[in-house]
Each structure stands twice: as C-alpha cells, then as structure tokens.
Amino acid sequence: MTSNILTPGSLEALHALWGWDRTWPKVDSQTAAPDDSPMQRLSRVELATMRLNADLASERLPYRGVVFDAAMRIAVWADRGQLPYLSGWSVAKTLQSLYYPRSWNARVPIRGLDLLVAVDCSSDLHGVSITLDAEPTDGLHHRPMRLRNRWVELGE
Q1: Burial of residue 26 (number of CB atoms within 10 Å: 0-12, 13-18, 19+)
Q2: 105-131 pLDDT, tens digit each
Q3: How are beta strands 128-134 and 51-54 bridged, if at all?
Q4: Assuming Cys at both sites, which of 25, 92, 118, 136 could form a disulfide with 112, CB separation 3.0 to 4.6 Å?
Q5: Which pTM value belongs to this model?
Q6: Taking residues 147-153, what's their average pLDDT?
Q7: DSSP per-residue letters across 92-148
Q8: In which band, very low, low, confident or very high, does the pLDDT at 31 lie, cut at 50, 70 and 90?
Q9: What is the signed CA dihedral for 70, 155, 105, 84, rounded to 10 degrees?
Q10: Contact predicate 98/108, CB 8 Å
Q11: What is the DSSP letter of 49?
Q12: 54-87 residue pLDDT tens
C-alpha cells in the first residue's frame, strides 16, 4: 500500500527514518500501581497550583518513549499558546487518557500525575518542568518547588 503512494526515493527515506528512530535511546518510567503512588498524598492546593513550563528555546535531543512523547506534547501546547490555560490536573487527565486508556475515567489521574513526575525528572532532555506550591512547613507559607522534589518528599 505504502509503495503505491510514495515514490521510491521517499520510501527509502521513510525506511531510513524508521531505522534511525530505533537507535534513539528510550526514556520510559516504570509507574507503580496507582495505590502505591506518592501522588495520592498531594493536597488540593498542590494540585491547584501545579504549573507547567516549557522552554521552547532549549535543545531537544531525539529520544523515544512515553515520557519524551508526553513532554513533546506539552511543548507543542506551549508553542500553540494553550499551556497557560491548562491546569496540571487537566494535563495529567489528558495524558492518562492518552497513554493509559483503561484508566481514562479514574476519579484522580494518578497515572497521569506519575507521568508528569517522570517528565519533570527528565526535564534536562526536553526543557519541560513542573512546579507547584507545596504544603507549608512553618504553618504559614506554601513553598514553591519542583514536582519531582515533592514526589521524593511524599515518598519518604
């Protein structure tokens, strides 16, 4: 079918691209069961203050896998000007329904939040970072911090 649509030169280029894609390193996280995830202990304030930032000027190295694909989707939303209007909750819900279709209707998008943690942990590869205002330790002021650091705190 493809050989009927593409010219021989285009077909060779497509096969070369597929072969090149297989040589890219794979960035994937092993997500735990939703019941074991530290993300279940995020407060409502932390969920509401989650902010996604995509540095569009950063160099993106070619990687493959769910984590890198999710980061590229977030970068595309930023490039289209949609990211400032999306909450961390809605992005987590969207990513969960896309990559984990069996849990698309979960009450809390734990798998999507875990995927956002993996995106934040690999931010040096693609320039997408996630911050939130963590619960106060002094009882008064919320602390701005990266999602990956909060994940570590909650896991202890």
Answers
A1: exposed
A2: 778 888 999 999 999 988 888 889 999
A3: antiparallel
A4: 92
A5: 0.78
A6: 88
A7: HHHHHHHH-GGGTT-SS-HHHHHHHHHHHHTHHHH-EEEEEEEPPSSSS--EEEEHH
A8: low
A9: -50
A10: no
A11: T
A12: 988 877 777 778 888 899 899 999 999 999 999 9
3-state secondary structure of 51: strand
Q: Would you tell me how many other CB atoms lie within 10 Å of the CB of residue 102?
A: 8
- 49-80 burial, b at 16+ Cβ within 10 Å, e below that, comes to bbebebeeeeeeeebebbbbbbbbbbbebbee
Edge-first strand listing for the sheet containing 51-54: 51-54, 128-134, 143-146
150: nearest Cα among 51, 77, 29, 32? 51
Q: What is the DSSP string of 17-32?
A: HHHHHHHSPB----PP
Round to whole Å and give the CA distance between 96 and 31.
12
Residue 13 predicted with pLDDT over 70: no
For residue 46, give both structure tokens: 């932390």
CA–CA distance, 55 with 75 (Å, rounded to integer): 8
